[in-house]
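Justification of computing resources. Each target in the renewal requires a structure prediction run like the one illustrated here; the chain below, 763 residues long, is used simply to show the kind of job we budget for.
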Amino acid sequence: MCPSTAAANLYFLSYKRIRRTSPDAPLEAELSWLRPCVVTGFCSKDSPWHVPFFRKKLTCVALWVFESAFADIKMNNRAHTFLWGIRQFRTSIPRSRALRTYSLVFCKPEVIHSKRNPRNHLLNGFDEGLQPSVRYLFQDIFISKSVAGCTQTRGIIHAAGFKLDRILCPRRLSFDAKHSFVSDGTSDHDLMKTNFHHTSTEDVLTKKMRPTPVNYKKLAQECNSLSDVLDTFSKAPTFPGSNYFLAMWIIAKRISEDKRRFEKQLMFSHPAFNQLCEQMMREAKIMRYDHLLFSLNAIVKLGVPQNSLMVQTLLRTIQERISECDERCLSILSTALVTMEPCMNVNALRAGLRILVDQQVWNINDIFTLQTVMRCIGKDAPFALKKKLEMKALKELGRFSVLNSRHMFEVLAAMDHRSVVLLNECSKIVIDNIHGCPFKVLISILQSCRDLRYQNEDLFKSIADYVATTFDIWKLKHVIFFLLSFETLGFRPPGLMDKLLEKVVQEPGSLTVKNIVSVLHVYSSLNHVHNVQNREFLEALASALTGCLHQISSESLLNAVHSFCMMNYFPLAPINQLIKENIIHELLTSGDTEKNIHKLHVLNTCLKLDESTYKCIHIPLPQLPLTASHPNEKLAEVLSRLLEGDGCFSRNVQLPHNYHIDFEIRMDTNRTQVFSFSEGDASSATNMQRVAVLCVPKSAYCLNSNHLRGLMAMKIRHLNVMGFHVILIHNWELKKLKMEDAVTFVRKKIYSDEALATTDESV
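Resulting C-alpha cells:
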C-alpha cells in the first residue's frame, strides 16, 4: 500500500473515532485531521482519492466537516483555524524541497531534502517534513533561479521568470466575494451553492513569460540559411531542439549543392551550434520518440560526423527506447539507418530493428513503410526474415501503386534478395506505365536488375524503345548512361544505338572525352555495326578523339584505342600517341597495371593480325600468366564417340597471341573427313583444314540472341586469320541433351552439309 493510501485510511479511522467518542469535539480537531487528508489523500495520483470507494468515502467526510464548520461559524470564535487551513492549501510550499533549474540545462532537478520526521508529517501537515504527494500537487509549479532562457523537464514546466518567495498553486481555490462567511443570514443550503471558481496565477504568469514552441516548418519558411536558424535558437531557445535541426535540413534540401556545402561549414562554426547539440543530448530521454528519430535523420543528413558524441548518444537512447517504436517510427528509423555507416551502436540498433520487424511485419499496413524497412535490414539479414518480408510484399501486391512497383527493384537489390515472382509482377506494372518515368528511376531499375542478376528482355526492350521514341527530349549524357546500363546487362538495343550513331555522325563536336570513351566501349562490347554508316561513325569518333588528345589521360586513351581495335579500326593519331615510350611506361607502372597489360596485348595482337599499317610495330610487354582451362567433359566424351577415339582431336590447345581453344580437329577442306593427329603424310597436310571447337557460355552472346559480343567476335576473327574454321558449341544446350542426342547435335556442327547428306544416304 502506498504511503498516501495508508495515510488516508488512518485519517478516516481517526475521524470516525473522534466523532464517535466526542460528538462535541471542537472544530480544530476536525480540521487538524482534514488538513493533511486533503493534501495527501485528495491530490496524490497514487492515493485512494483515485479509487472510487475511497473517493466517495473521503468526499462524504469532507462535506460533513464543511457543513459543520459553516453551521457553527457564528458561534465558534475559532473559525480562523479553518480559514488558515484553506490559506495554507492555496499558497503553502514545503520549504524542505528546493528545485534549482538553470537555462538550457535539461538534467534532473536538484532535490534537497531536509530532515524528515514522520511524526511531524502526520501531525502538522504542511508545517514540517516532506509530503509524498507534493510532486503531484505541484507538478505544474514553476520554480526558477534564473531568468535567462527556458527549460522543460518531465512533469515540470519551466519558464523564464523572476525569483519568487513562494510558489503559486496552478489551480488556486478562492471564494467569490459576494458570499461571505460572516453573513448572518446564510443557510447551509445557500452556503453549499457558494460560487467556487479556479484561477491560475501560474498559467497567466507562464503565458506571458514562456516562449512559444517553435514550429519547424514555419521556421524553415522564415529563415533563408542554416545560420538564420541558429541565430533564432540563440535568441530564444525552446523545447524541443529537434525542431531546429529539422528546419535546417529542410532549408539544406532546397538550396544548391555548392551553397549547401558552404552553409554546412558556417553551421559547424556558429557559436550556437554546440549549445544546440548539448540541448539535444539532454532532451533525448524526454522528447517524443518520433521527434528523436526525426532528429537523428536530420542530423545525419546535415553531415554531423557519425562518431560524434551527439549522434552516438541519440543512437544509444533510441536503442533504450526501441520498445516505443510503432509503424511510423519504423519508417523513420529505417530511413535514418540506411545512410549510416556500420558501427557498434548502428549494428546493435539494426539488430534490434530486425527483431522488431520480425515481430510486427504482418501488422505493417503502409507499403512505403514496408519497402523502407526491407531496404534497411541489409544484405546480411537472415534469409528467413527476407523470405517473410517477400511474402508480406506478395500479399500486398494488389495494393502496389506505380511508384511502389518502381521502388521495389531498388528495395530488393538493397536487401540482396532475388524474388523472381515479385520482380516479374512489378516489371509488368512498370512496362504498362513506362511513359513519363524519370531518368533516375529508370537507371535505378536497370542497375538493380544487374545487381540481382535479373534478366527481363521485355522490360529492357520497353525502356529502350521508350528512350528511342523520345530521343530528342533526352540529353546526350542520359542516352549514354542508358546504353552503359544495357551493356552491363548484356542487352543490345539496336534501335537506340542506331539513333545515337546518327547523332554522333551529325554532331561529333558535341562529344566530350568521357562521352567518346563511353560510346566506344558500348559499341565495341556489344559488337554493334551499322549497315550503312558504320565507317562514318568510326571516323567521326576518331576525329573527335584526335581533337582531345592534349587533355586525355593515358588510361582513357588506352581504353579508346582498345575499343577501336576490337571494331577492327585503327586511327593513326591516337595510336601514334599511345605507343610513345613515356605513355607505355606510365601505363605499366601506374593504375590498374594488370588490366592495362592485358589491353596492350590485345593491341599488339590486333596490329599484327588485322589489316593495319602497324604490323612492324611491337610493344614490349610482360608475359601474361597462363589461365587454367578446363574443357567441357561432356563435349570431350561426345567427340570420342563421334570420332571413334581420342587420337582425332586435341584438348586445350594453346595458340600464339595468348589464344587457346577447347578442342582442335583436323579435317579436309570440305569437312567431310577427319584426320588423325598421328598421320604425317604431306599429301594430307596440303588438303587439311584446322577446326577449332569452342564451347561458349551464354555470356558470349547478347541477351537472348545469337549476336556475339565484342571479345568473342574479335577472337573468331583472329582465329580465322590464323587458319582455323571455328565451330561454336552452346554449353547450355549441350547440357540438356542426352548422350545420343548430343552426338547427333555435335555431328551437325562439325561436318558440312554435303557430308551430312552423304551420311544420311548411306544410312
